[in-house]
Automatic annotation (TrEMBL):
Pfam families: Peripla_BP_2
Localisation per UniProt entry: Cell envelope
Source taxonomy: Bacteria, Bacillati, Actinomycetota, Actinomycetes, Streptosporangiales
Record's keyword terms, sorted: Signal, Transport
Cellular compartments per GO CC: outer membrane-bounded periplasmic space
Protein's organism: Planotetraspora mira
CDD domains: FhuD (cd01146)
One GO-annotated biological process of the protein: iron coordination entity transport
Annotated protein name in UniProt: ABC transporter periplasmic component
């Protein structure tokens, strides 16, 4: 059922009413900090919006960011609903067929409160950075736990997600295993710091070079590989990424260039730019040291499973370089 003619306020009231009925059926609970807490054991979790009582063992979890999809997959949990980057996006394919049937509940910027309430979740995981304005409404549907930032704090976010779902110890073990994997690959590469690895991403309206505070940049740092001076983004307030124009593409050279594209329109721009003369003058391009990688893994995965796959890619594509 849709409320197309309603104002935002009226729509919010309708959604909260639906949520209230669902919570009553499930055992009750009310208030922004305690909503949805069913009769039974609960735990208090501190997070970006305060403290929230969550079920000891939540079983119907809705996630509102792609990193939380990765978190639950890593922890062996399938959520009942997920918000996606845009209306054209599907569940990331690297998460496998068991996640393909998860119900969509809107986008990261505009989660569908009706769809979320209809799933009768007992826990909602989201991000203050993306969904702060929806927190009060969400927390009346079910206990809601928000991480603070996106990308730069991906490890801390994963551990908070693990705590919220009652798998804190397992989360710590999974993160430690990833870090050991990254360190081992760095050692296998010998002196990885001497390899300057460039990372660029095509988006529909811009090209970005990614720095040390991005998700993939942090993974590259965990491995120990070097970065081109330009992509250290020194002196920048935001060292996750910086936009570059097609005319600046000659600045992205390195020993290896990893390239990804976000969506079909971005892939078209990628094809145009990489067919141009500036791109083909790059030493990495001339040497055949360019690799297109999965955007869902390298850019929007932002979790332990995705990080492990990035490490696998780095080992696969850099090992031939050190053997030359």
């Amino acid at each position: 059922m849709r409320f197309h003619g309603f104002s935002r306020l009226a729509r919010g009231v309708a959604v909260v009413a639906m949520a209230g009925l669902a919570l009553t059926a499930c055992g009750g609970g009310s208030g922004s900090g305690d909503s949805g807490s069913a009769a039974g054991a609960t735990r208090t979790v501190k997070h970006a919006m305060g403290e929230t009582k969550v079920p000891e063992h939540p079983s119907r979890i809705v996630v509102l960011d792609t990193d939380k999809l990765d978190s639950l997959y890593t922890l062996g949990i399938t959520p009942v609903g997920a918000a996606l980057p845009d209306e054209q996006s599907g569940i990331p394919k690297y998460l496998g067929p068991s996640f393909a049937t998860i119900k969509s509940v809107g986008t990261l910027q505009e989660p569908d409160l009706e769809a979320i309430a209809a799933l009768q979740p007992d826990l909602i995981l989201g991000s203050k950075f993306r969904q702060e304005k929806f927190y009060d409404e969400l927390s009346k549907i079910a206990p809601t736990v928000f991480t603070e930032k996106v990308g730069i704090t991906w490890k801390e976010n994963f551990l908070l997600d693990a705590e919220a779902v009652g798998k804190k110890a397992e989360g710590e073990q999974k993160l430690q295993a990833y870090e050991a994997q990254a360190k081992a690959v760095g050692q296998e590469l010998g002196d990885p710091a001497k390899l300057k690895i460039s990372l660029i991403r095509f988006r529909p309206a811009e090209i970005r070079e990614y720095g040390p505070d991005s998700f993939a940049g942090i993974v590259l740092n965990d491995i120990g590989v070097g970065r081109p001076q330009e992509q250290l983004l020194e002196g920048k307030a935001d060292r996750r990424f910086a936009p570059i124009s097609p005319e600046q593409i000659d600045q992205v050279d390195g020993d290896m260039i990893f390239v990804s594209a976000f969506g079909a329109d971005a892939a078209k721009q990628q094809a145009q730019v990489t067919a141009g003369p500036l791109w083909n003058k790059l030493s990495a391009v001339k040497a055949g040291h360019v690799q297109v990688v999965d955007d869902e893994v390298w850019m929007t995965g932002i979790g332990v499973t995705a990080a492990g796959k990035v490490v696998d890619d780095v080992k696969k594509f850099l090992t031939p370089l050190i053997q030359k």
